[in-house]
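Allow me, if you will, to draw on your knowledge of protein folds for a short while. Thank you for your consideration; the sequence and its tokens are set out here:
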Amino acid sequence: MNKLNNNKEYNKKVKKKLTVRGVLTFLVVLSMVRQFFLGNYEGIFTGLLCLMLFAVPIIIDRKLHVDIPKTLESIILLMIFSAEMLGEVDAFYVKIKGWDTILHTTNGFLMAAVGIALVDILNRSDKFAINLSPFFVAFVAFCFSMTVGVTWEFFEFSMDLLLKTDMQKDWVIPAIHSVMLDPTNTNRVISIPIETLEVNGIDLKLGGYLDVGIVDTMKDLLVNLVGAVIFSIIGYFYVKGGGEGRFVSRFIPRLRTRK
């Protein structure tokens, strides 16, 4: 009877996940059709990439027997859709201020959850003779989240360098502060406000010079850190409490018993 109830519960979770995935998949396909009529073939490719990424949670669930909670999977799918379709295709990164910041903060939060899950699965497994303290589990989760964030920034830099994209968005810097401008060579910082920026004789009227990615990268890593710290603290109390807590359990994947 318990096994039957468990199966029903699992099937309900699968149906709810399919509902979210189905709606987002429909929106992606709709966007791809629109991009086709607009002649934006890069947008179509982005849509195909989005659909491929949608399949990753299914593969993890079926092949690795890892039960991804409905809430976590829904947020992951929404993150993919928001980053690829809304961010890249519909230019939300440019149109909506803070769009990139929201996604990177959420990513730091979610990757810390995945880090907690990886260590927690090992802690609960009889195959591994380890039993890490809640603090160390939280620390590993934090490090895992930051490593994913840094790796993503490497990817953005590589795309900008090799494919001439602009994933590391430019920032307008209104002044230069540098010891290189000190004529006395005494390591004194000289500040010069920038009023105009000319490129090939054309005044871009930006009120500063373009920083090509450094500020954006550091901002992304900073908000990633904020998300990672928040969930690592939550995860610490989750592990300390023996894995109890309805809120946190919605974000922690678990190894499913094979039937």
User: Anything to note?
Assistant: Residues 55 and 204 are 43 Å apart (CA to CA).
